[in-house]
Request: fold
Amino acid sequence: MAKKAKARRVREVRANRALDALPALSSLTELPAFDELKASDAQREAFEEARAQAGEAADELVLGYVVRLDRGYPAIVCEDATFRAEFATRLTKGDFSRVAVGDWVCARRPAAHEMGLIERILPRESDIARWRGSNRGERQTLAANVDLVIVVQQLGDREVDFARVARSAVIVRDCGAELAVVLSKADRAGAAGVARDVAALREVLGTDVRLVVTSAGAQGDADVAAAREAAEACGVPFGEQGVRDLVPAGVVAIVLGESGAGKSTLLNALLGRNVLETGAVRASDDAGRHTTVARRMVSLPDAGVIVDEPGLRSLPLVGHERGLALVFPDIAHEAVACRFRDCTHTHEPGCAVIGHAEELGYAGRRLDAYLSLAHEMRASRQTLDPDVVI
Ligand SMILES: Nc1nc2c(ncn2[C@@H]2O[C@H](COP(=O)(O)OP(=O)(O)OP(=O)(O)O)[C@@H](O)[C@H]2O)c(=O)[nH]1
Ligand SMILES: [Mg+2]
Ligand SMILES: [Zn+2]
Reply:
């Protein structure tokens, strides 16, 4: 028993030291309140089940969700408090400690302790995940229980390569989430550039893609006015209000995009304050420096909740066939009729995709994006194993 108490004491000291290095939760004013998100029926049932099994300790159990992940110690919001938590030993033994922002949890809050204990991660309604690493890789959940993914792509003086946006779209749709695209930094593209990139994106993803053009971190008013005019001429909403309309109260979204795309800058503009850290991009190649390191939820005034994410270096496609078919339903529909099952739609006789490309009016960029993503998925099947779920 003494040994156990000592181990507990050591854990507490270590936790306190780690907590001192993290921001005090009381100072974080942008965190959502408990009732801004709703647990699903299945999640509530799972929580009630956990309480029923807890016997006398049931009173210590609370329902909450993860609002922030720094290193270790997720921050949890429950009905009457915001607290940090560690994992119950039962959870750390398996690999179930991979809690994500947005996860609903059953947590224990013993009266004498500041730190809570996550007893259970309640079943997820959705799971935005990517494969990371080369070779076998592992599946990493970026956020749980999210309704909408906003893919942020920065504009510049040259036309954007929308293949990356198409790749993100495939992953998002594969996860079952809704998709919207924000073209950021429009001030850098000029009026002609905005029109060019909006047209290119619509060519790749179709005209019904939900799209907003922004310029949240611009300096020059004239550039912003020109960008606004160009976006509105294309029928695309411009600015923060356009993003707010994508994420009304009750909706939980996440921003996804490369480092330096302007995600945190956009969220600060929506918050009306500089809550999130932003960082300059490299002059030589426009790349960001991975400024955001924590995943965290921010609650937008007069709108819903958005998760800010660190920029992602890679988004490999591995077994995302369903997503590919959802993003390119017209092409996927044709591909079924190809003579060869493993048709690459490049040179094969009896290829329905090539045969109908002109007839069906696939624009060149759309077909190219489909082919390159389908090709990548075929190649990754050889090296990556989508069945390895960690
Ligand atoms: N010209 C211009 N620059 C912008 C705009 N928005 C952001 N920036 C700049 O782009 C740089 C990167 O912005 P961040 O908001 O830190 O980018 P991020 O996507 O959060 O990057 P990570 O956190 O590294 O993933 C900063 O120097 C911003 O000032 C914009 O609308 N126009
Ligand atoms: Mg950031
Ligand atoms: Zn074919």
Notes: Residues 184-185, 187-188, 215-218, 257, 259-265, 278-281, 288, 290-292, 310-311 surround guanosine-5'-triphosphate (ligand 1) (CB under 6 Å).
